[in-house]
Design goal:
The chain is elongated, with a radius of gyration of 25 Å. The protein has helices at 4-10, 14-25, 30-41, 62-72, 81-96, 164-170, 200-205, 222-229, 233-249, 289-300, 353-372, 394-403, 414-417, 444-452, 472-476, 492-496, 509-528, and strands spanning 100-108, 119-131, 135-136, 139-141, 152-158, 178-180, 254-257, 284-287, 306-316, 320-328, 333-343, 379-386, 405-406, 411-412, 419-424, 432-436, 461-463, 482-487. With 561 residues, it is of the alpha/beta class. The chain contains 17 helices and 18 strands. The strands form three sheets. Strands 1-10-12-11-15-18-16-17 form an eight-stranded mixed β-sheet, with helices on both faces. Strands 3-2-9-5-6-7-8-4 form an eight-stranded mixed β-sheet, with helices on one face. The chain binds zinc ion (ZN). Zinc ion is lined by residues 343, 355-356, 389, 426, 560-561.
């Protein structure tokens, strides 16, 4: 064998020979991988829908965890009472499973540029059209907005304010009104399926190298985007500051938004600005598009419309947040760390099932499997479930800055040296089809070998692409190997992502089990291979609030996957 490899290599490109060499070197303990599969997947072959709470199919506990994080304690809007209760529950459960160093690790939001994050929850909502006829309205209050302080009934005015000219046009006309602020959503007939899995061809399309930066979200089009694009940065900042309080300054009662993705009873939304004092934000709701459009058309036809709302929301002052931490101590290299995680916080419209109780439940399940199978690992395995992801990857950024490196200076800690790799799940309920390399070509042959041992569960597609919008970026940003898996799209974009329908039912149990096996195998391999995962060069320092991949140039109310 020793002779054959170099001879064989001569006939190949340097890249492929390196790959073969690494594959020769990379060792996977197939017996352990089999144990992990049996621990999670030993189902007796039955199919069927999600099991009843507490009644996971033999082995797995992942749907039981899902139930607690959604039906029982969801939604988990950062720093809300439910978020804190869910955190306490997770700590209790992780301790029950015998994990070490289980705790809520605090971090502060008081200096977050987009504003501290107070606790906030909805305590009551009802809404209906009362003139010209009665219609109950499907809508949900937007995060960090006030209630109506009792029932209010008022007339509707349409007023989309995307430029200073719009402000002049509506000045003096909004007092005492309920203002519809979105352009009328255009609802085309849906001809594509609500949810999809990747076909082999689509997965293969993700492989090629030399792509224009993957996964960019593009600019926000429309009138507002164009008007903003024409402004100098100073003009834009001044306009946006005025825009934030325009409806309140004009004396509007409340505002209503809708978008074309949020149809058929579904609605999507984020949060209101938190700068200044968010407890004075006008009441604001996100409404399903067909209801929004009926009202808008009546107004266009000069038929007076009156709506009535009774909204109660409650702020709590504590702006400190937390990440949920748990560990399995390493044996011979306990000071070296492999991490696994995903964000624990959610939006409040549904219960945050696919975004991201799924990734959290899977990470907890990974820890449970590795612990209960009593697998000895050289390195310490540490799970972190992040807070504040939806507000801009805040929990993971705070953690990485505290433990590994400050991206503003790129000054690293000794723990930075000892870090072996991070694996993240935050793309919904879809099973794993592969992994994004984040431009780290050196890990390709390693992951190829790891996926080879999982061929019965996944095609294991590996792409050099970056993917953005979630917490592995906090690691990538300081030169640490952090990865997000490729997952089937499912109904994430059409139905669940930041919507009122992000509920337990949208979770596919077998997909979560598959994810748990694959992620557990990756974590085990990373914690036992001779070397830490190879890493890219340390990037140059990046200024604070910058460099998060083209997000937020235009103030978007929602951030994060
Ligand atoms: Zn997410």
């Amino acid at each position: 064998m020793h002779l054959k490899i170099p001879v064989f290599c001569l006939a190949l490109t340097a890249g492929i020979s390196a790959l073969l060499y690494a594959q020769q070197q990379e060792h996977v303990d197939l017996n352990v991988i089999h144990k992990i599969k049996v621990a999670e997947l030993s189902t007796g072959g039955g199919r069927g829908g999600p099991p009843a709470p507490g009644a996971d199919r033999a082995g797995s506990k992942v749907m039981d965890t899902m139930w607690y994080l959604t039906d029982r304690y969801g939604p988990r809007l950062t720093n809300s009472p439910q978020f804190r209760a869910a955190g306490e529950w997770a700590v209790g459960r992780l301790k029950e499973w015998g994990l070490s160093n289980v705790h809520l690790e605090k971090w502060a939001t008081k200096d977050v540029p987009s504003g501290p994050i107070p606790g906030w929850e909805i305590k009551g909502y009802s809404g209906a059209m009362v003139e010209p006829t009665y219609m109950p309205i499907i809508a949900v209050p937007v995060a960090w907005t006030q209630g109506t302080n009792g029932p209010v009934t008022a007339e509707v005015v349409m007023a989309t304010v995307a430029s200073p000219a719009d402000m002049e046009k509506f000045h003096g006309k909004l007092k005492g009104k309920i203002v519809f602020t979105s352009a009328i959503p255009d609802l085309t007939f849906p001809t594509s399926p609500l949810g999809t899995r990747y076909t082999p061809e689509q997965l293969a399309d993700l492989i090629p190298e030399l792509l224009p930066g993957g996964g960019g979200r593009g600019g926000r089009g429309g009138r507002g985007g164009a008007a903003l694009a024409d402004m100098t940065p100073e003009e834009r900042t001044a306009f946006q500051a005025k825009q934030r309080t325009f409806f309140k300054d004009e004396g509007a009662v409340m505002t209503v938004q809708a978008d074309p993705r949020g149809q058929s009873g579904t609605l999507f939304g984020g949060g209101a600005p938190r700068q200044g004092d968010p407890t004075t934000n006008l009441p604001q709701i996100s409404m399903t598009a067909e209801h929004y459009n009926r009202i808008a058309r009546l107004v266009e036809h000069k038929v007076p419309v009156k709506l009535t709302f009774d909204i109660k929301t409650e702020f709590t002052p504590d702006t400190d947040s937390f990440n949920v931490i748990a560990e399995i101590p390493g044996t011979t290299k306990a000071d070296e760390v492999v991490m696994v995680g995903g964000h624990f916080d959610s939006w409040h419209y549904g219960t945050g099932a696919t975004d991201n109780a799924a990734g959290s439940a899977v990470a907890m399940e990974v820890m449970r499997i590795l612990k209960t199978q009593n697998l000895k690992m050289n390195r310490t395995v540490r799970m972190a479930l992040w807070g504040g992801e939806e507000e801009g990857l805040l929990g993971s950024a705070a953690y990485v800055k505290e433990h590994f490196a400050d991206p503003a200076t790129m000054k690293t800690t000794t723990q930075h040296d000892k870090f072996a790799g991070y694996f993240n799940i935050d793309n919904g309920t879809g099973r794993i089809g592969g992994i994004y390399l984040q431009g780290n070509e050196m890990v390709r042959p390693i992951f190829e070998t790891w996926f080879a041992a999982l061929k019965d569960l996944t095609p294991g597609v590996i792409t050099i692409r970056d993917t953005g919008g979630t917490d592995h970026q906090s690691y990538d940003r300081v030169g640490l190997p952090g990865f997000q898996f490729i997952q089937d799209p499912m109904d994430y974009n059409s139905r669940t992502h930041h919507s009122n329908m992000d509920m337990y039912d949208r979770i596919q149990a077998q997909d979560l089990e598959q994810m748990a096996v694959i992620e557990a195998a990756f974590v085990y391999n990373a914690a036992t291979r001779p070397d830490k995962l190879p890493r890219k060069e340390l990037p140059p320092p990046s200024p604070p609030n910058g460099g998060r991949g083209g997000r937020g140039a235009v103030a978007a109310p929602t951030a994060g996957n």
